[in-house]
TrEMBL record:
InterPro entries named in the record: SAM-dependent_MTases_sf
Designated name of the protein: Methyltransferase
Organism: Brevundimonas intermedia
Length: 234
């Protein structure tokens, strides 16, 4: 697969002059980076549903851990974030600015507070599908029911059988975290998502795809350690 792609025609070139650089910070409540092996697990799930996908966009890329994992599954991985980390395009995904990229899939671990806005924007923008790494508890709540089952109908959920370590402010490959995470998958209507869903009571319901034990060992790469900082805060 080819390397990370950071710039695109029409991207906000002057943004670097007006927006602050953000360094990974253990006290930043919105910064929960993804272990690269968890991103690869998402890439495998996406390939099950859409084996011919070529491009993806990570719109909350941080320092690039998710992007690093996704490069194994896409020819082109676009990267943007509301803050400048290390060469990414600066773009507030849930803001009013036009999107700097068009991609087959939008794949991200969004900040928790605006995750519903991320889902709506991604579902509207992606050409073929959306994959979001979210706490499994996102399934709960009356307010999200319409979002997940009507406005942006969920195709599948893929829970991790082993804990995916997502820590505040850093990636530490030696530790774990208390929260349970799953990949949430939306296949766009043009790809006929009903092919993958179960029909129960005359209604199509999301499929469940397990991420079996052993994924962490199987999908870890030595190159992931370039992002590692020990002593993460769970």
């Amino acid at each position: 697969m080819t390397g990370m792609i950071f710039d695109a025609p029409g991207s906000p070139r002057n943004a670097r002059a007006v927006m602050a650089h953000r360094d990974p910070d253990a006290d930043d409540v919105d910064f929960f980076p993804t272990a690269p092996w968890g991103a690869r697990a998402g890439g495998e799930i996406i390939r099950l549903f859409d084996p011919t996908a070529r491009t993806c966009w990570e719109p909350a890329c941080g320092p690039g851990m998710m992007v690093h994992g996704l490069r194994d599954y896409f020819d082109i991985v676009h990267a943007s974030d509301a803050y400048l980390y290390d060469g990414n395009v600066i773009h507030d995904f849930v803001g009013d600015a036009p999107s700097p990229y068009a991609a087959d899939w939008i794949v991200t671990n969004p900040p928790f507070a605006p995750c519903e806005a991320f889902i709506r924007r991604a579902y509207a923008e992606a050409r073929r599908g959306v994959a979001m790494l979210l706490r499994t508890g996102v399934l709960e709540g009356q307010g999200r029911h319409r979002l997940l089952y009507a406005d942006c109908p969920l195709t599948a959920i893929a829970p991790f059988s082993e804990r995916l370590p997502i820590l505040r402010g850093r990636y530490d490959p030696e530790t774990s975290s208390a929260a349970f995470y799953s990949w949430f998958i939306w296949v766009k209507p043009a790809l006929r998502p009903q092919r993958f869903m179960a029909r129960v009571g005359g209604v199509y319901r999301p499929a469940v795809v397990d991420i079996a034990p052993g994924a962490r060992a199987r999908l870890f790469r030595q190159s992931d350690l370039q992002f590692a900082v020990s002593g993460g805060v769970s």
